[in-house]
Write a structure and sequence with these properties.
alpha/beta, about 15% strand, about 280 residues
């Protein structure tokens, strides 16, 4: 039995899709905050159980009977550590034998502020006594394709990554890796540094948007403060704007680059090119 937290989210749904190709639906637990949003999964025969990171009492029951658990990191930056600690404690109480956790690329050396909560969770896993594996995911290409509509509207892709090399992959690729690990024998303490085969700068990313759209799109590099302020003016909450700007500055320092190709080796195929993710976004 394999349980997946955050199963109604984008990554979680992809993971479950891949698992369904290999094992019966009855052997999959979709642990979700709101079961109403996972009726489609229940319709496929997946066991849908309530598991709210902020309600620890829901977690142990959600994980009962699971041999392996995929802990997909919470989206609530700033609250992640206590939420993840609650999941780990509940998994241990429920008798889960292995926890796989979606961490951040090179979390122990990353210049990104995002890394701190991931590192705290990794340390908690090591201290828990429960066998674990770390899926240190790099950037989702979709994090940047989300900016395409604004880039086309203003003929500019803005950012703060400078000439930093970015090795992102599609969300689907990271999900395939997670499913592969869950379905394989796991050696506790294994760390996967996962990133895409493609490497690009944001200037190259902007050029690809321009090439495919037929419109002028230039990359405009901003300082961290300028980028934060611009994102705030676009309507993003202050904390989230600051986080995105910090991540781009981290990218300028190499924080989103990795050329080990562990991800493509793990999933047995090349990762999806960023040009293909851009194409899919433009067609949607």
């Amino acid at each position: 039995m394999i349980a997946v937290t955050g199963a109604s989210g984008q990554l979680g749904r992809f993971v479950i899709q891949f698992l369904l190709e290999k094992i019966p639906a009855s052997e999959i637990i979709a642990a979700v905050r709101n079961p109403e949003k996972a009726k489609d999964l229940a319709g496929l025969g997946v066991q849908v159980r309530q598991a709210d990171y902020n309600q620890p009492e829901t977690l142990t029951n959600a994980f009962k009977g699971a041999e392996k658990l995929l802990l997909i990191s919470s989206s609530e930056v700033g609250s992640r550590t206590p939420q993840h600690l609650a999941v780990i404690a509940a998994a241990k109480q429920a008798g889960v034998k292995v926890i796989a956790y979606t961490s951040l690329l090179k979390a122990d050396t990353s210049p990104l502020a995002l890394a701190s909560e991931h590192l705290e969770t990794e340390q908690a896993l090591k201290a828990s006594g429960v066998p674990f594996v770390l899926l240190r995911n790099g950037w989702y290409t979709e994090n940047y394709t989300a900016s395409i509509p604004a880039a086309l509207a203003h003929n500019a892709l803005i950012g703060g990554a400078g000439d930093g090399k970015i090795a992102s992959a599609a969300r689907e690729d990271y999900a395939a890796a997670a499913a592969t690990v869950l379905l394989s024998p796991i050696k506790s303490g294994t760390i996967y540094e996962l990133a895409g085969d493609d490497v690009y700068t944001l200037a190259e990313f902007a050029n690809e948007i321009a090439k495919q759209s037929g419109k002028t799109v230039s990359y405009v590099n901003l300082s961290q403060d300028e980028f934060t302020a611009t994102l705030e003016r676009a309507g993003l909450p202050k904390a989230f704007a600051a986080l995105l700007a910090d991540s781009d500055i981290g990218a300028s320092k190499g924080g989103l680059f990795d050329n080990s190709h562990q991800l493509s080796r793990l999933i047995g195929r090349p990762t999806k090119p960023y040009s293909a993710v851009i194409a899919a976004t433009l067609q949607s």
